[in-house]
Amino acid sequence: MRFGIVGARFSLGVVTLLILGSLVLASVPLVPSAHAQAVVATVQVGSYPIAIAYDPGNGEVYAANFYGASVSVISDATNAVVATVGVQYYPAGVAYDSAKGEIFVTNEGSGTVSVISDTTNTVVANVSLQIGADPIAYDPSNGEVFVANELSNTLWVISDATNAVVATLTVGRIPIAMVYDSGLGEVFVANEDDGTLSVISATDNKVVATVNVGCSPLGIAYDASKGEIFVTGCSLNAVSIFSDATYALVGTVNVGYGPAGVAYDSGRGEVFVTNEDDSTVSVISDATNAVVATVNVGRYPTSAAYDSALGEVFVTDQLLDAVTIISDSESVASSTITTSPTSTPSTRPTSATTTTTTTSASGPNATTTSQTTSYTSTSTTIVTTSAPESTATTTTAFTASTSSATSTSGVSALTFYILAGGLAVVVMAGTLVGLARRRKQRGVQDS
What we know:
- The protein is mainly beta.
- It has two helices and 32 strands.
- It has a four-stranded antiparallel beta sheet with strand order 1-28-27-26, with no helix packed on it. It has a four-stranded antiparallel beta sheet with strand order 2-3-4-5, with no helix packed on it.
- Helix 1 runs antiparallel to helix 2.
- The N terminus and C terminus are likely disordered.
């Protein structure tokens, strides 16, 4: 293929058009999405929050801190931690019992379930099971709590009246997540290792079906309005949707990378999916089974819970020891939060910087406000005795320093990258022109 001076001149012409086009784009304001789910707050909690549940009885959210041996209690009115409850080793799952006003927390390292009163935010009982107790779900129709063991493939049914085990079942290998289906009175258990869903009748506490999903399920949520089960883990960037009546696959939705946690928003008929590998949350409409919004969050979003009173979704971030709060309202201005920890991805950060950018209007007079918050952590050790054995808990306190800046919309980030790319192409084209001329002078032709 011949290139020569003619090809170089053609490239220069294309670059000129790109630059002119970018100047036009500079005059076009960036308008926030009409479907503007937005981050409204980020709350620092304990070490490595891994699971979360919403308590509508007192408007509080409970986040299990896996390495902190504690549960952080967040008020949804103030978006602040109002209590820290010491539990046992490696709390991994959380479920709210609406009948008793209690929070059930599985302690994977201790093989127990801690029962927390939401009135006093103290542990009122501990149920002994086996090491490996992890996923948990509450059945309001029978007043029972379902807990599965990842190591033994065992599932226990606990009565919330007596805090005693009333049934023991066997499910698939490595049960990793579960959800209660109020429409059919069944519990769906995601078994990661053998690629199945165990379906349990909550009426007689028996496995009534085993659904082969053909993958390694990771997270699971129930959509009450559609009678569907949303499952993550079947793809690097997709969510699988199953009918709870036929157990058939009815849809697949592409989301971000590394989808893990999933929560159903009954107020808007949407499903929120945490994408661990690209630090986003995908919002799926259950009417169209399509992504309607993507929200940038902290660093490693893991699990999610829906707050029906305020229309908010609470998302845990394991690496930043934080909970991100997303509003599902369209009336909130679009915002993006980017968090950059100073440590490596495999360790928890000792400091972090959070930048929030909010566009307040559209058009030529659009105003962009940036707020940067830097966090520096300090560690303290707290010894709690709410469990049978004393537990040493390391918590992290963050000191924040905030600076803000406001600027009028000028050249957008997209325009900047186009200009930078155009400049790079100009330099490359100039180099090729020079090379072609030198080749011509030496009598060499491109082939």
